[in-house]
Automatic annotation (TrEMBL):
<dbReference type="InterPro" id="IPR008040">
    <property type="entry name" value="Hydant_A_N"/>
</dbReference>
<feature type="domain" description="Hydantoinase/oxoprolinase N-terminal">
    <location>
        <begin position="5"/>
        <end position="164"/>
    </location>
</feature>
<feature type="domain" description="Hydantoinase A/oxoprolinase">
    <location>
        <begin position="185"/>
        <end position="327"/>
    </location>
</feature>
<dbReference type="InterPro" id="IPR002821">
    <property type="entry name" value="Hydantoinase_A"/>
</dbReference>
<dbReference type="InterPro" id="IPR043129">
    <property type="entry name" value="ATPase_NBD"/>
</dbReference>
<dbReference type="InterPro" id="IPR045079">
    <property type="entry name" value="Oxoprolinase-like"/>
</dbReference>
<dbReference type="Pfam" id="PF01968">
    <property type="entry name" value="Hydantoinase_A"/>
</dbReference>
<protein>
    <submittedName>
        <fullName>Hydantoinase/oxoprolinase family protein</fullName>
    </submittedName>
</protein>
<dbReference type="Pfam" id="PF05378">
    <property type="entry name" value="Hydant_A_N"/>
</dbReference>
Length: 679
């Protein structure tokens, strides 16, 4: 069978593991992610594994938090949304103006009605004008038509025109979502299009690395539901890899801990992701996972995700005081470890008057050709400047305002990232972490604390104190994680609305943390969290915070061996799975309509309609599973029927949602060779 190579590229670290046929980890490595050139970090991680074992790799599987982080951070490549048949209210409800900018949204006549009939002819001339206008300005096109899940013909035609006139990637809404709800479907397809270049760059990087090291094995990608797809499928539907990293971490955490009932908490650089596992399986969300304020229509592990990680920016927020996240910055301890020349600058800032731009250095983040091609001269010059070494923003603000403004715009576009004081730095100051520059973390804590006191009137720490402010940040992180764990537990009960769960979680967290900080204080209440399902904490920063979280919540804690690379372990443990949904309705009595991919089809009997839908869905699911890299395929069905029985009419059928699930193990090198040989 050979070995399996699991790779996880996160916002901060890239991990690699080798897993044998018994699902045991035989080697693991962790290196910094190099967002400006992913190849560097991936190569370093793979090269840290035993080289003599790499030739025996028969499967490579990749999980990533890059797509999830791009949603949380609001980053992405430039996209034009072509909306067919949308009215002004639907466009407004989609949130696309916030996501893409109002100028990148083009509405044209067309679309279908709820029965699949054409509501208006497609205005092909308007579509052509829009494509020609935007083809040199964007990385991809997002296409969404009203009721395209009932009839996708207009979306398909617009995609043909995009390919004919621009050769840019184009994503259609009906391929990503099967539910009604035009605004959310439009947001889903736009998020997908924004991620295409990110995923393409990642896949190309991995393939180049594997080829250079003589690893000839299929490359699979983890989807948000924990299943696998091959690289080509991921390029077509990258939005499916949202929550890829958390899904892989759940699989890895369960495998490493051996637990079948647990609460998996994955803490990375940008987010903390929490999932409840019962009987060895995480709960799936079929209505779309909520990520960074967006809820794309993708089936994924039900994850409670917050923008709180080791690299989250610690900042002042009006009305809240000190706040952490959701913006990711480069920890000062990491910055100085990679660029020692910044230490003298921090030493100088620690002795000078406080300024809002102190601690802030600009570094290159990623390379996006479509964005770079559109940069004005000042931003292009700033990009070239920051590509050489980090730029001190305090200096730029005082001495070169043109450079400072250009760098700020590059940061908003996702090409540049700032440094700042983070929970990782606080952990270094407190001695619970020590892998980077503790000196830079201490200087950062002192400078940051002085900024909070003198610029915002927040905090009472004495001058020169690094430990006090770091302890407060540490406690805020513990509180934030604890609140989200409690909130996840409340949601699992399905008894509270989101707003109610949030309020109750805040109250319970305050009670828990008050008891943790002063155990001697008498209390009439005692709160214990998840007595039958311990917390399994994984991810790089987890060891710094979760022992304190578990103590406060009075819950069991598992931090299994290789917990820091759980995502990479879980990446190779999934199987290929594809789900195809078809809807059957009864528009008039005695007529049963199947909404097929090529348009609606009517039948006089429900049984005939169901049999046709089962055959069609099974064939399509099996085809998708094989195209996604399954070595063999099995089919299961699910049916969700909406009907009533009354004394006058008997059984009355309204609607059925039929799902075919095709699943099987991924192709490995031996499977691929066997399939290629003639019979």
């Amino acid at each position: 069978m050979g070995l399996m190579l699991g790779i996880d590229t996160g916002g901060t670290f890239t991990d690699a593991v080798l897993v044998d046929e018994h699902r045991e980890v035989i080697a693991a490595a962790k290196q910094l992610t190099t967002r400006y050139d992913l190849t560097v970090g991936i190569a370093r991680a793979i090269d840290s594994l035993p080289p003599e074992s790499l030739s025996n790799v028969s499967l490579v599987s990749l999980s990533t938090t890059l797509t999830t982080n791009s949603v949380v951070e609001g980053k992405g490549s430039p996209v034009c949304a072509l909306l067919i048949g949308y009215d002004e209210r639907q466009v407004q409800n989609s949130g696309l103006a916030e996501l893409l900018g109002p100028e990148a949204i083009v509405t044209v006549a067309g679309g279908h009605d709820a029965g699949g009939a054409e509501a208006a002819p497609l205005d092909e001339e308007a579509v052509r004008r829009a494509i020609l206008n935007w083809r040199d300005k964007v990385s991809a096109f997002a296409i969404s038509a009203t009721f395209s899940v009932r009839n996708p013909r207009h979306e398909v035609r617009v995609r043909e025109l995009v390919q004919e006139l621009s050769r840019k990637p184009a994503t259609c809404g009906h391929e990503l979502a099967s539910s009604l709800g035009a605004p959310r479907r439009a947001a889903t397809v736009a998020l997908n299009a924004r991620m295409i270049t990110h995923v393409q760059r990642l896949i190309e990087s991995v393939e180049a690395i594997l080829s250079a090291r003589g690893i000839d094995a299929p490359l699979m990608i983890v989807k948000g539901d924990g299943s696998l797809i091959n690289a080509q499928s991921a390029l077509q539907r990258p939005v499916g890899t949202v929550l890829s990293g958390p899904a892989a971490s759940v699989l890895g955490a369960c495998a490493l801990s051996g637990l079948r009932d647990a609460i998996v908490a994955d803490m990375g650089g940008t987010t903390t992701d929490i999932a409840v596992v019962r009987n060895g399986r995480p709960e799936l969300s079929f209505d779309g996972a909520l990520i960074g304020g967006w809820q794309p229509m993708v089936e994924a592990v039900r994850v409670y995700s917050i923008g709180l990680g080791g690299d989250s920016e610690v900042r002042f927020s009006g009305g809240e005081g000190i706040s952490i996240g959701p913006r990711r910055v480069v920890p000062l301890s990491l910055l100085a470890a990679e660029h020692p020349e910044v230490l003298p600058v921090l030493e100088r800032q620690a002795k000078s008057a406080p300024h809002g731009s102190q601690l802030r250095f600009a570094l290159r983040l990623q390379h996006d050709e479509a964005l770079l091609a559109r940069l004005p001269d000042d931003e292009r010059q700033a990009w070239e400047r920051v590509s050489v070494k980090p730029v001190d923003m305090e200096y730029a603000t005082a001495e070169d305002r043109r450079l400072a403004r250009a760098l700020a715009r590059l940061e908003r576009k996702g090409l540049v990232i700032y440094s700042g004081f983070t929970p990782t730095d606080a952990a270094h100051v407190l001695g619970v972490s020590s892998h980077w520059s503790t000196r830079a973390a201490e200087l950062g804590a002192r400078i940051w604390a002085r900024q909070m006191r003198r610029l915002y009137g927040c905090g009472t720490w004495p001058d020169g104190d690094a430990e006090g402010p770091s302890r407060e940040v540490f406690d805020l992180v513990v509180d934030g994680i604890s609140q989200k764990l409690i909130e996840a537990g409340l949601h699992e009960q399905n008894r509270l609305a989101a707003a109610q769960a949030d309020k109750l979680a805040r109250l319970l967290t305050e009670m828990v943390m008050e008891q943790r900080r002063d155990p001697s204080k008498p209390s009439l209440f005692s709160v214990q969290f998840a007595g039958d399902a311990p917390v399994v904490a994984v991810g790089g920063p987890a060891a710094s915070y979760y022992p304190e979280v578990a103590r406060g919540l009075r819950t069991g804690l598992y931090m299994p061996r290789f917990a820091e690379v759980a995502n990479a372990v879980g990446a190779v443990l999934g199987e290929v799975s594809q789900r195809v949904h078809l809807t059957i309705t009864q528009p008039t009595r005695g007529t049963f309509r199947v909404f097929a991919p090529d348009g609606p089809k009517d039948f006089p009997q429900l049984g005939e309609a169901v049999e046709y839908a089962r055959t069609l869905a099974a064939d399509e699911a099996a085809t998708q599973a094989r195209e996604a890299g399954a070595a063999s395929v099995q089919i299961d069905f699910e049916q969700d029927e909406n009907s009533v029985n009354n004394e006058i009419d008997g059984d009355v059928f309204f609607e059925m949602r039929l799902t075919a699930i095709a699943y099987g193990p991924p192709c490995r090198r031996t499977d691929r060779v066997a399939q290629a040989e003639p019979a």
